[in-house]
UniProtKB/TrEMBL annotation, chain A:
Protein name (Swiss-Prot/TrEMBL): Cytoplasmic tRNA 2-thiolation protein 1
Role noted for this protein: Plays a central role in 2-thiolation of mcm(5)S(2)U at tRNA wobble positions of tRNA(Lys), tRNA(Glu) and tRNA(Gln). Directly binds tRNAs and probably acts by catalyzing adenylation of tRNAs, an intermediate required for 2-thiolation. It is unclear whether it acts as a sulfurtransferase that transfers sulfur from thiocarboxylated URM1 onto the uridine of tRNAs at wobble position.
Record keywords, A-Z: Cytoplasm, RNA-binding, Transferase, tRNA processing, tRNA-binding
Keyword NADP: no
Lineage: Eukaryota, Viridiplantae, Streptophyta, Embryophyta, Tracheophyta
PANTHER family for the chain: ATPASES OF THE PP SUPERFAMILY-RELATED, CYTOPLASMIC TRNA 2-THIOLATION PROTEIN 1
UniProt region (Disordered), positions on chain: 325-357
Keyword RNA-binding carried by entry: yes
Family: Belongs to the TtcA family. CTU1/NCS6/ATPBD3 subfamily.
TrEMBL record, chain B:
Modification after translation, per record: C-terminal thiocarboxylation occurs in 2 steps, it is first acyl-adenylated (-COAMP) via the hesA/moeB/thiF part of the MOCS3/UBA4 homolog, then thiocarboxylated (-COSH) via the rhodanese domain of the MOCS3/UBA4 homolog.
Keywords: Cytoplasm, Isopeptide bond, tRNA processing, Ubl conjugation pathway
Species: Camelina sativa
Residue ranges crossing the lipid bilayer per the database entry: none
Designated name of the protein: Ubiquitin-related modifier 1 homolog
Subcellular location: Cytoplasm
Domain of life: Eukaryota
HAMAP family xref list: Urm1
Modified residues (1-thioglycine): 99
Gene for this chain: LOC104788389
Function: Acts as a sulfur carrier required for 2-thiolation of mcm(5)S(2)U at tRNA wobble positions of cytosolic tRNA(Lys), tRNA(Glu) and tRNA(Gln). Serves as sulfur donor in tRNA 2-thiolation reaction by being thiocarboxylated (-COSH) at its C-terminus by MOCS3. The sulfur is then transferred to tRNA to form 2-thiolation of mcm(5)S(2)U. Also acts as a ubiquitin-like protein (UBL) that is covalently conjugated via an isopeptide bond to lysine residues of target proteins.
Length: 357, 99
């Protein structure tokens, strides 16, 4: 009796859950610094996401919605919570899982197994789209050609298009992704560090691409990564958790490290960075890129060719540097200055983080 | 002191891909108390076989690694000052990977 009392005393101090005042707290919320018990945590977590969905009018009844599912923590929790809220609050949505196979052996093939299990566990139909089918290149092939720097550039650009293509195949009205508050805060910081004003102005929007093929939204915009992981842990949700083998050199890693250190000192910083990002206004004298369509594939683009077409052209012509670095001519993809023989060397010698798009 | 340590979120790769470790730890000299600080130091020396910087930064866990003592956030029990008892279960989960 004494031992278990001492144990619970040690665990939550002698305090009880801030919300219900009945149960032992198991978590300290970074957002509010409240100490809450498991049951109250489930409630506030789910309710807050429901409020974000409702207040931002993310969905309309009858919509077909694809959940970008990688088998990782965010997309698994997203699939679980969204199907639960859809049921509980009658959103009237037709939900699907959409997964992208980039062709990364030992990473993606394992996580796809997780998504296939999610398909069964949550009863949501699954569509898989592969880089190999779409572009004729797997990430493994690409890395063999360009080396271990700038891979994330290729992968990110290709994935965005792949998601749109997959969404079209599924004939959905909208795409949702599991980007969380930490991700968005990192992106704000990244765009500031790179001087990418165009992206800075868009990256905190909860819904993007409304003027493009498929709008996409991020219901977890205000949800802390820590809470997503704790939710998955307590609910014993099945997810895959290994770092992509090609990612250690990604520039985003620096922003992530910084954000995590900040969170330790002042957890509220993450939401505050997002707020700052939302309230940025671009000077009217700043020139912004104009939106048009790609001449080659018709996809949305601010240049003559969309970035995916430029990168693909470079790969297919054995010129992996094409589309990487600041455009020298008037049109990107104008690579008269690039020497075919020296490209492999020059891309590897490029300082990590010095790319500009 | 008998403890069960669990590693998740990719951290198991640092300890020979074993997720659950049942260990027996001797109390530090001149003390009858084992704190999380002592445990972390022990883990770094005895269980982490590669890339210790992925698990720890200085005296504490790397930012982005969650710690649960008996299924309870260690932020509630004093983080490094948390005292451990026999048969406790400590879970380390990394959040630093794709979602």
């Amino acid at each position: 009796m004494e031992a278990s009392e001492a144990k619970s005393k040690r665990a939550g101090g002698s305090r009880l859950c801030c919300i219900c005042n009945k149960r032992r707290p198991v978590l300290k919320r970074p957002k509010t610094l409240q100490q809450i018990c498991r049951e109250c945590f489930y409630e506030v977590f789910e309710e807050e996401i429901h409020q974000v969905i409702v207040q931002n009018r993310l969905f309309k009844s009858g919509e077909r919605v694809a959940i970008g599912a990688s088998g990782g923590k965010d997309s698994t929790v997203l699939a679980y919570v969204l199907s639960e809220l859809n049921r509980r609050h009658n959103y009237g949505l037709d939900l699907f899982l959409l997964s992208i196979d980039e062709g990364i052996t030992g990473y993606r093939d394992d996580s796809l197994e997780t998504v296939k299990r999610n398909e069964v566990q949550y009863g949501l139909p699954l569509q898989i789209v592969s880089y190999k089918d779409l572009y004729g290149w797997t990430m493994d092939d690409i890395v063999k050609m360009i080396g271990l720097k700038n891979n994330c550039t290729f992968c990110g650009v290709f994935r965005r298009q792949a998601l749109d293509r997959g969404a079209t195949l599924l004939k959905v009205d909208k795409l949702v992704t599991g980007h969380n508050a930490d991700d968005i805060a990192e992106t704000v910081l990244l765009n500031i560090l790179r001087g990418d004003i165009a992206r800075l102005s868009r990256c905190t929007s909860i819904t993007t691409g409304e003027d493009g093929p498929i709008p996409r939204c991020k219901p977890f915009k205000y949800t802390y990564e820590k809470e997503i992981v704790m939710y998955a842990y307590f609910k014993k949700l099945d997810y895959f958790s290994t770092e992509c083998i090609y990612s250690p050199n990604a520039y985003r890693g620096f922003a992530r490290e910084f954000i995590k250190d900040l969170e330790r000192l002042r957890p509220r910083a993450i939401l505050d960075i997002i707020k700052s990002g939302e309230d940025f206004r671009i000077a009217t004298t700043t020139k912004m890129p104009e939106q048009g369509t790609c001449e080659r594939c018709g996809y949305i683009s601010s240049q003559k060719w969309c970035k995916a077409c430029v990168l693909l052209e470079g790969l297919n012509r054995g010129l992996p540097k094409m589309g990487i670095g600041r455009p020298r001519g008037s049109v990107n993809g104008d690579n008269k200055h690039t020497k075919a023989g020296s490209t492999a060397k020059s891309i590897e010698s490029k300082q990590c983080g010095s790319l500009d798009f | 002191m008998q403890l069960t340590l669990e590693f998740g979120g990719g951290l198991e790769l640092l300890c020979d891909s074993i997720k659950i470790h049942k260990v027996n730890i001797n109390l530090p000299n001149e003390s009858d108390i084992l704190t999380m600080k002592d445990l972390l130091s022990w883990v770094r020396t005895n269980l982490i076989k590669e890339r210790p910087e992925m698990f720890m930064k200085g005296d504490t866990v790397r930012p982005g690694v969650l710690v649960l003592v008996n299924d309870c956030d260690w932020e509630l029990s004093g983080q490094l000052d948390t005292t451990l008892e026999d048969k406790d279960v400590i879970v380390f989960i990394s959040t630093l990977h794709g979602g």
